[in-house]
Design a protein that fits this description.
The structure is a single chain. The protein has 447 residues and is of the alpha/beta class. It is 40% helix and 16% strand. The protein has a 7-stranded mixed β-sheet, sandwiched between helices. It has a 6-stranded parallel β-sheet with strand order 8-11-12-13-14-15. Strands 9-10 form a two-stranded antiparallel sheet. The relative contact order is 0.10.
Length: 447
């Protein structure tokens, strides 16, 4: 018996040989399994497109995930392909781009339903009703939080609660994908998501605007990791959470589990300075002593200018002081630390970049092994800074198709110069000079 539902993970960018798992598809798949609904997963990054195209006419429902940027371009490509090969299929789209712009997305002729926010419950319930031939009762379907559809030229739906308390957590069906196709044979690194969202209010990041922080039960995390280990025998475990360290008690319990269950392996995680500052020196020493070695701790910096960090990006009062203290503590504990620097924020000047240059020089003195990656700010819908730049006329896409055309123009490129359209030509020239000085001074620690 063929499956009724196809879940599509479009390409996120081009030219990558190894990828993270299709977490969104896996989460939705887990919710479908609980209802006994048959499904397939097609990940354009690793699966042969011709096989998906050949089977496409047989599905009654097709779900497509989209993140703003190149993946939206590819998502629209697949939606058009669906309309051509299987015009009767019900298309459901979700993901960060849709969460930020559900009404705009639902207005596309390529889309039957758009789902914003956590999709496990809403997607599974919507699919179940469609498969039971109850799709005609549209009014009832649109009473589901987060489900949007276009009716007579108007996109309607219920707003999505920023925090769902009724996520039906379930083990991720890793056995339904070819785990080996995602592994770098040299690192054998796997990625895992143990928490959704982030409690921070950063104005450039779409996560806190649309999805508040919530965590999986640790027993389920342990169960997922056992299955991942059985399928991959991983050597490195990368926690793909926006921040792993929000709940200290939970984090330390998880680290103890890694010590007990995965000695000799390595792990990586992201953190916020505002959270790590609550951890004691003893905590850092315990983290370092864990027999599963913390290969890299990634702590968000963004800018070394207090004005940019606190007023523009809203990293929180005392962010630079906290970050400095964490750099001292991690070095004392022998923990490798890296961070990200974002250039070209709206309102940023060459002098702000000079402050970042000077600040990182100070961090390098107290943590000689400190490393950074760099990128330029790109406005993501659903964020405060996106609203600011669009209000000032710097960019505006008014439909899903226009976002698809824009595509890679809003994609993050790492460790290379990008023009900054909200700067005057004179200001950008001055900023470029400071950027070059930054790279001259710190290029050796850019990864």
């Amino acid at each position: 018996m063929s499956a009724d539902v196809l879940l599509i993970m479009p390409k996120i960018d081009e030219g990558k040989d190894f990828h993270h798992f299709p977490f969104g598809c896996l989460a939705l798949a887990a919710s479908l399994e609980k209802l006994g609904i048959e499904y397939d997963i097609f990940d354009e990054r690793v699966d042969a497109a011709d096989l998906a195209i050949a089977k496409l006419p047989g599905y009654r429902v097709v779900g497509v995930s989209m993140f703003t940027g190149y993946q939206t371009t590819r998502g629209v490509h697949w939606l058009r392909t669906i309309r051509t090969l299987n015009p009767d299929a019900i298309t459901i789209v979700g993901g960060p781009h849709v969460t930020a712009l559900p009404q705009q997305t639902a207005q596309s002729d390529l889309v039957d339903y758009a789902i914003a926010g956590y999709g496990e419950n809403s997607f599974a319930n919507l699919v179940s009703n469609i498969l039971q031939a109850r799709d005609s009762d549209r009014a009832r379907l649109l009473n589901t939080p987060g489900v949007y559809a276009d009716r007579a030229g108007n996109a309607v739906g219920w707003p999505t609660p920023k925090k769902y308390n009724d996520i039906g957590w379930a083990p991720l069906p890793y056995h339904r994908i070819d785990v080996a196709s995602y592994l770098n044979p040299e690192t054998r690194r796997v990625m895992y998501v143990s928490q959704y969202g982030c409690p921070a209010l950063c104005t450039f990041c779409a996560t806190p605007e649309t999805r508040k922080w919530t965590s999986k039960p640790l027993e389920l995390v342990y169960q997922d990791l056992e299955l991942l280990d059985a399928l991959s025998t991983f050597r490195q475990l990368c926690f793909f959470d926006a921040t792993l360290f929000t709940n200290r008690a939970r984090t330390m319990q998880l680290i103890q589990h890694l010590d007990d269950r995965f000695p000799g392996r390595q792990w990586l995680a992201d953190a916020r300075a505002a959270e790590l500052i609550r951890y004691s020196d003893e905590d850092f020493q315990k983290i370092k002593r864990c027999r599963a070695d913390l290969k890299m701790l990634v702590v968000g910096l963004e800018s070394g200018s207090e004005y940019i960090a606190e007023k523009i990006v809203k990293k929180g009062k005392g962010h630079l002081k906290n970050f400095y203290e964490i750099a001292k503590r991690t070095h004392a504990a022998g923990i490798a630390m890296t961070s990200g620097v974002v250039f070209g924020f709206p309102g940023e000047s060459a002098n702000d970049l000079k402050m970042t240059n000077d600040y990182i020089a100070e961090i390098r003195k107290i943590h000689p092994g400190f490393r950074i990656s760099t990128t330029f700010f790109k406005p993501l819908p659903g964020t405060e800074l996106y609203d600011q730049v669009t209000a000032n006329g710097y960019m505006r896409a008014n439909s899903l198709e226009e976002w698809a055309d824009f595509g890679g123009g809003n994609h993050y490129n790492y460790n290379e110069w990008n023009d900054v359209p909200w700067m005057s030509s004179a200001a950008q020239k001055e900023y470029l000079a400071e950027y070059r000085r930054f790279m001259d001074v710190h290029g050796e620690i850019v990864t």
